Structure formats: C-alpha cells, structure tokens
Amino acid sequence: LDAEMGPAVLQATAGRYHLTAGPTPAIEQARVTRLVEALAAFEDAYRVMWRGHPALRESAARVELFLIVKSGHLRRIIKDAGIAQPHFDTGGLYLKESATLIIENSSLLERSILASLVHETTHLLNHEILQGAAFPPWLNEGLAQYCEFSQYLASGADAGFHLGVIDPGAELRVTHGEDEMIHQFTPARSLSYLQGQFMRGHALSLGPLLETPDAARFYGEGAQLRYAESWTLVHLLTQSAARSAGPLREPFFRYVAIAGRGEAGPAETLPKVLGMNLEALDDAWYRHLKQLW
C-alpha cells in the first residue's frame, strides 16, 4: 500500500474511521475530510436501520480506509496478497482481520467515490455489528448495493443518508480540449438492466439467486444480474409488503439473524421465514420492481 499511495498522502479522521488517499487533481484535503465524515454518518444511519435487531452489537474498533485512484492497482494488490479474485474488476476489498478497506475509484465525481466507500463499509458493518460472517452472498452484496444506491444529501435540513430512498444520481462533465469525459453515478442503470431482462422475455425468478450459497458462483458469469436481483430484493424486504404476508421488515430481521448463525439453508428458507412460498415472493418482487421503475 505504501508503494501504491506514495509519500505525499492526504488523511482525515471522523469517529472511528481514518481515510488515507493519494493526492491527485480529483482528491484534495477538503474532499478527503468530507468523505470520511460522510462514512461516520453512514454508520449511524445503518445502525438506526437495524435498531431492535437481536444480533446488533457495538464496535469501537478503528477502521483504516485507503483510497487508490490509479486504475488497475487494486487488482494487483489483491493478486500479490494471494486473495481469490472475482471474474470482474472489483471496486474494493475488505480485510476482516485488520478492519481495513481498500477502495479503487479514479472518478472525479465525489458522489461516485462515496458510493464505493459506502459499499465496502457495509460489508465491514455486516461482519462487525450484525455478526454476518456467514451471510449468503446475495444478502451481503444486496445490503451493500442497497446502501450504495441510497440517497445522500450533503447539506440542508435533511442532510445525511436516507437508506432505501434511491439516489437520483449525479454527473460531472470534464472537457480537455476537444475531448469530453463524463463521470457518472447512476443507480437507475441497475434497474434499467433488470427491466431490460424482463422486456426480452426472460422469466426471472429469485430461486436461482437464493440457491447460490458460495461466493465463487455468485461472482462468476452472470454476476451483474445477481447483484441487481440482490439489492432490489433487499429493497423489497426493507421497504415494502407482500399481499399474503404484510410488511416484510420484521420477518426479514429474523432471517438475517438466522443467516448470521450460518443457518440460511436452502432457497426455501427465506420464503418460509417470510410466511410465503417462492412463487409468492417472486410475485411480490415483480410488483415492487414495477414501482421502482
């Protein structure tokens, strides 16, 4: 990391989070400070989301975050460390043993960088405060994507994270001579991708997703679809209701406790805990997606 970051680094601390970033035209001290302060606020919002959950616990351990802005360097770090890599370029790495997060994001758009930081921090919080080491991949990544895509307001009376409210996105256009580079943060793109799958006549069901217990299969071919299914399922479970079962948040909390104990079991476990079968869950998910679209 020292070799990648270089000697002239920028640092800031807020709460238990300490962020180190290499200075570039996109990263200056004020931005590093804003980002780490936003992360401390995110943990507060995430704890509020899980208030009343039986597994919720405190953690005061210092969290080290490293922001790498050079494309491709994170993959080299992962390879050098001998860590298994997914089939796609990952945007971050969470090292449980040392409470360390390494994020690669070369975007000039601050909202995009914050989204990457929030995604990886969610993995850390799942492990630390929800005892989620045994979460199935869809739950771990679904929660991370759900938080990454949630609205963040930097100022004003409603400043902070509004988990479950999908962020409208942001865009930054940078011109260099005759060339224009567009930096975007677009949560709606994932929804459009899912909508396109349905419009092409694909009969999607959550069954295959829930039957994918191991990370190798989840992150393999078709990972984009599994990510989109996962976070929209989490959105349904935290924000909506089903015709037959009513509000889903409380039974979802029970499922998360079961998953944290390593007892998520087969695909039928989640529908059973929710008080429905897979067909009814699929139906509730379809209707929820139509509302999101």
C-alpha end-to-end distance? 41 Å
Low-confidence stretches: none
Which strand order spans the largest sheet, edge to edge or round the barrel?
A: 1-2-3-5-4
Mean pLDDT: 87
N-to-C SSE series?
HEEHEHEEHHEEEEHHHHEEHHH
User: What is the number of strand segments?
Assistant: 11
Radius of gyration using CA atoms only: 19 Å
Largest sheet: 5 strands, mixed
| Residues in β-strands, percent | 15-25%
3D structure, described in words:
The chain is an alpha+beta fold. Helix content is 46%, strand content 18%. A five-stranded mixed beta sheet has the order 1-2-3-5-4, sandwiched between helices. The chain starts with a helix and ends with a helix.
Strands, helices and their partners?
Layout: H1 2-5, E1 10-14, E2 17-21, H2 29-49, E3 63-68, H3 73-80, E4 92-95, E5 100-104, H4 110-129, H5 137-148, E6 150-153, E7 160-166, E8 170-176, E9 179-185, H6 188-199, H7 207-210, H8 215-218, H9 223-239, E10 241-242, E11 246-247, H10 249-260, H11 269-274, H12 278-292
Parallel strand pairs: 2-3, 3-5
Antiparallel strand pairs: 1-2, 4-5, 6-7, 8-9, 10-11
Helix pairs in contact: 2-4, 4-5, 5-9, 6-9
What are the key terms here?
single chain, 293 residues, alpha+beta, five-stranded mixed β-sheet, 12 helices, 46% helix, 18% strand, globular
Quick structural overview:
The protein is α+β, with helices and mostly antiparallel strands and 293 residues long.
